[in-house]
Amino acid sequence: MQMHGFPRLAIDPAVCGGRPVVAGTRMRVVDILEMLADGASEAEIVADFPYVTVDDVRACLRFAARTADHPVVAAAE
C-alpha cells in the first residue's frame, strides 16, 4: 500500500515486517536514512542499489522530516 503523501514509499505487512520501504523494493526507509547518516551520498546509494533513485532517497528524507515534526505542547504554569 502506498503511503498517503509519499507515492514513492509503501507499507505492506508482507514486506519487511510492515516497515516503510521504497515502493516496489525491499529497501527499507530506515536503511537509506542510516546510510545518509553514516556519510553516504545520494549518488553512492544509487550506485550501490540501482533499483533506488535519487528521488527515492529524497522521499525517504521527506518522510523522516514529516515523521519527526510534531506539535510541542507547553505545560501550563
Write down how many β-strands occur, each being a DSSP E stretch of 2 or more residues. 3
Mean pLDDT over the residues: 92
Q: Write down the Rg.
A: 14 Å
Supply the number of helical segments: 3
Strand content: 5-15%
- Range of helix content: 40-55%
Oligomer: single chain
Report the structural category.
Answer: alpha+beta
Q: Main β-sheet, in a few words?
A: 3 strands, antiparallel
Distance between the termini: 44 Å
3D shape: globular
Spatial order of strands in the largest sheet = 1-2-3
Commentary on this structure:
This protein is an alpha+beta fold and 77 residues long. 40% of the residues lie in helices and 12% in strands. It contains three helices and three strands; from the N terminus they run E-E-E-H-H-H. The protein has helices spanning 29-37, 42-48, 54-68; strands spanning 2-3, 6-10, 21-22. It has a three-stranded antiparallel beta sheet. Strand 1 (2-3) and strand 2 (6-10) form a beta hairpin. Helix 1 packs across helix 3. The longest helix is centred in the C-terminal third of the chain and has 15 residues, at 54-68. The model has no long low-confidence stretch (mean pLDDT 92).
Give a concise summary:
The chain has 77 residues and is an alpha+beta fold. The protein has helices at residues 29-37, 42-48, 54-68; strands at residues 2-3, 6-10, 21-22.
